[in-house]
Amino acid sequence: MNRRLILAKSRLQIIPLGGLGEVGKNMTVFRYGDEIIVIDAGMAFPDETMPGVDIVIPDFSYLIENRDKIKAILITHGHEDHIGSLAYLLRDVSAPVYATRLTCGLIEGKLKEQKIGKYNLNVVKTGDEFRRGSFRFGFFHVCHSIPDSCGVYVRTPVGTVVHTGDFKFDHSPVDGEQTDMHKLAELGRNGVLVLCADSTNAQNPGYTLSEAVVSKSLRDAFHEVRGRIILATFASNVSRVQMAIDAAVENKRKVCVFGRSMVNVVGIALEMGYLKAPEGTFIEPEELNHYRDDRICILTTGSQGEPMAGLSRMADGSHRQVQIHAGDTVIISARSIGKANVQVILEPLGGGGNAGCLSADEEVVCISENDACGVDAIQVILGCSIGKGNLLFHMRGKQAFTFFDRKSGKSLRLVLKPKPEGMTRQESFAYYQSCAPEDMFQVTEAKIHLPEKARIFDSYVCDCCGESTGANWIRLAGEKKLCLDCYETYNRFDV
Q1: What's the pLDDT at 337?
Q2: Which of 77, 213, 215 shows the shortest CA–CA distance to 147?
C-alpha cells in the first residue's frame, strides 16, 4: 500500500495547546497522519494566584515527543500572546518558522535575547503559499493593532482550514491596510472545512472602534496635559506606539523609552521602518532633566500591572531613573487582560480617579495666597502644579486657598482659622494635626474668578546670550529677540 492511500485514511486532528477559552498563550496544533503544523506560540500574563511567576507558556510536552513530525511553525503576528513562548519551544524543536517581515524581526530579537543559536526563520509576504509534507499553507493580510498581521489557510488532504489570527474589520486602520476580504471570500467559495477565528470580546454587544478613534483620543490627551506624560502599553503594539510618537511630536514632546521589551521592539521597528519619527524625537534617560516636564513623553511597559515592569516600578518608587511625582499624567493604553491587576499601579499613585498623580490635567485649580508649606500638601494630594498651570499664586500672605472644578464650575475658599494664642511652633503643628477639617478651616465663597487655562508659548533663543526663553518673556530690540536679562529697558523719564 502506497503512502497516498495511507494518508487518505487519516483524520485531521486539531489540538489547542493554549488560547482556547482564555486570553493569551495562543498555540494550535494541526496533525494529519504523522505530520504536524503549529500555528502561533504565545505566552500569557500570570494572575494574582501565581506569585513569583513572570510568564505562562503552553505545555510543550506533546510537541517535544513528536518533534520529528513537525513540518512548520506558522506565526500570525508579533504580539506577545502569539510569539512569547517560541524561544522556549525552539530550545527543543528545530522546525522551520514562517512569519511576515516585522514578526520575524521581533522573533529574532527574542531568540538572540534567549541565546537560541540555531533556528530556521523564513520571511513571508501575504499572498505567498508553501508546501510542507501533506500540508499546503498560505498567508493573507488581516487588520490588527500591529503591522504585518496575517491569517493563515492550510490545505490538507481532507479539506481547507482557515485560521484568522487576531483580526477585525477596520475601515480606517492606522497603516491603511484593511483585512483582505476578497481572499476570505475566495476561500469561502472554494469550500472551508474548519474556520478557527479569534473571538475575543465577540460576546460584547456593538463593535470594536477603529484605531483611528484611539489615535484621536491620544492626541486630545497629549494636547490637554501640561506636565510629563507617562504612557504604558504593550511593547508589541507597534501601531499604538506609533500613535504615541505622533502625538508627542505634534505637541513638541521628546520621547524617552523604558522597559527592556519596549526598548527592543521600538529599536527593531524603527530600524525596519515600521515606526517613523523625525530625527531628534527620542532622547536617552540621562537627558530627561534637560527638558521641561511639558516637553517629555515617557513610553514604558507595565500596562497589565506586571510587578517588575517599568510602570509598576515607577509607581512604587523602585525605578532607578523615573519616579512618578505630582503633575505627571499616567496613560494606560491597553485593555486589562484576564485578571491582570492594574490596581497594583493605581494604589501607589493614590487610588485612581482624580487622586494623586492621576488627577485630570487642570480639572482642579488651586489659587494659593501664600508660598508656605501648605502648598506642598496641595501638590501631593491634588496633583496641582505650576508646570500644569493649575497651581497659581495670589500673594497676600494669608493661609487661604481657593479651589475650582472646571467641569462642574464649583468653587470654594478655605481660610485657616486662628490657633489659640501662646502656642509654640511644635504645639501649633500638634494642634492642627488633631483638628477636624471643619475646626481647622473656614469655608467661604471664592473671591477670585476662575482663571483661563494655562497658555503654552513657543520658546525662542536669545540673540545675545543664546539661552532659550518663552515667547511671553522675549523683547524685541530692532531685529533681535532678547531675553529680559539682555534687554535694556527704555525709560525716557528716568533722568
Answers
A1: 52
A2: 77
Note the pLDDT of residue 178.
87
76: how many CB neighbours lie within 10 A of its CB? Answer: 28
* Domain encompassing residue 483: 457-495
> Are 115 and 188 found together in one domain?
yes
Domain boundary among 196, 231, 260: 196
Residues 71 and 162 in one domain: yes
Is residue 309 a contact partner of residue 301, using CB atoms and an 8 Å limit?
yes
Q: What is the DSSP letter of 336?
A: P
Using alpha carbons only, what angle is made at residue 210 by residues 140 and 302, rounded to the nearest 5 degrees? Answer: 90
48 plus 192 within the same structural domain: yes
Q: How far is CA 415 from CA 28, 370, 381, 383, 400, in A?
A: 66, 11, 18, 20, 4
CB atoms within 10 A of CB 185: 10
C-alpha cell at 266: 521600538
Residues 162 and 245 placed together within one structural domain of the fold: no
Q: Could you give phi then psi for residue 105, rounded to 5 degrees?
A: -60, -45
Q: CA 17 from chain center: how many Å? A: 28
Shared-domain flag, residues 339 and 392:
no
| Low-confidence residues in the chain, pLDDT < 70 | 1-9, 174, 211, 303-308, 334-362, 491-492, 494-495
Query: How many domains would you assign to the chain?
Result: 4
The whole-angstrom separation of Cα 131 and Cα 157 is 12
Contact (Cβ atoms closer than 8 angstroms) between residue 305 and residue 340: yes
Q: What local confidence, expressed as pLDDT, does residue 151 receive? A: 96
What is this structure's pTM?
Answer: 0.63
Asked whether the beta carbons of 305 and 345 are under 8 A apart, the reply is yes
User: So what's the pLDDT on residue 338?
Assistant: 46
In a domain, 452, yes or no: no
Give the integer Cα–Cα distance in Å for 14 and 196.
10
Residue 184, classed as helix, strand or coil, is helix
Residue 206 is assigned to a structural domain of this protein: no
Q: Cell numbers 490657633 label which residue?
A: 419
Measured at the alpha carbon of residue 131, what is the angle toward residues 130 and 137, in degrees to the nearest 5? 60
Q: Is residue 300 part of a domain?
A: yes
- Which pLDDT score is estimated for 361? 54
Asked if residue 201 belongs to a domain, the reply is no
